Amino acid sequence: MTGRRDHGDAPRSAPVTDAATSARMSRQRRADTAPELALRRELHRAGLRYFVDRAPIRGQRRRADVVFPRRRVAVYVDGCFWHRCPEHATDPKNNAEWWAQKLAGNVARDRATDAALIEAGWQVVRVWEHEDPRVVAQQIVALVRGTG
């Protein structure tokens, strides 16, 4: 293995336009975002125990935000910008072509991940960052406990 990440056809990195943009991008978290933490808090409050930031399928590099291995449920909390939420997605003005390719690659990778998990017998839950964590947690609890 070369240690390279799977980024599809997207370019490796965006041309940096200024120091402020570079600083802002370096602060983007891959795990433990506020929406993830809020959802995990609600799931824990409901009595569920789970794994965090884990590849559902052994050997697969793509990691789910919350994983219930025994029930074969993988939960992804998707950011509206990065995963192109139909309600809140925005198109960057700077480097527009690069960003369009990058964000389309993210969506394509999400679909490929979902398909691979479903084929392997997993249930995939995709949650938008703006969704109410209490409502989403109730849906996940029902799914994991087999009542949903």
TrEMBL record:
GO terms for biological process: mismatch repair. Residues 1-10 have a biased composition (Basic and acidic residues). Pfam families: Vsr (PF03852). The keyword DNA damage applies. SUPFAM superfamilies: Restriction endonuclease-like. Residues 1-35 are annotated as: Disordered. It comes from Nocardia coubleae. Keywords: DNA damage, DNA repair, Endonuclease, Hydrolase, Nuclease. Belongs to the Vsr family. This is Very short patch repair endonuclease. GO terms for molecular function: endonuclease activity; hydrolase activity. The keyword Transferase does not apply. InterPro entries: DNA_mismatch_endonuc_vsr, Restrct_endonuc-II-like.
